[in-house]
Model the fold of this input.
Amino acid sequence: MIGQEVVYYELRKETASGVRRRSEGHQIPAWVRREVNDFFTDHGEPCVLPSGTAKVLAGPVGTGEAVVADASSPIRRHLVSVNDKTLALDMEAGGLALDFHAQTGQHRAKGWLVIRGISDNADANKDDACHQVAAENAAVVLQGLIPYLAEGARHQG
Done:
């Protein structure tokens, strides 16, 4: 999956009446989104990988510190309430997005993007059996996106 938005799900307020979840969203830069859209225009959406065994979708990724291994997790319910198109959960994308948006100085990165190979369904069957295949699929997607991103980056100065 290609994360076009990162939704950080750890923000919350704990009260006597229960937990009130909050979220913070970060969009990928507009020029990166254009290049991702061009990739899908050329390859279809969903894009089927050359192996024919996986497809690529673009959308929001939920991110935070919790490992989610429960299909009925309150975190999953919260993310669906924030954006019903949330495609995946991870623990790393939030740090990347926050770092990009907090950077200062003349050597700032021009853009960022999250590409995730999905290895489980964040439920009770969660295990490490498909990590290698997921990583390989993410690498194939990145390899396909590099020409688009390189072209877009050239226009950013």
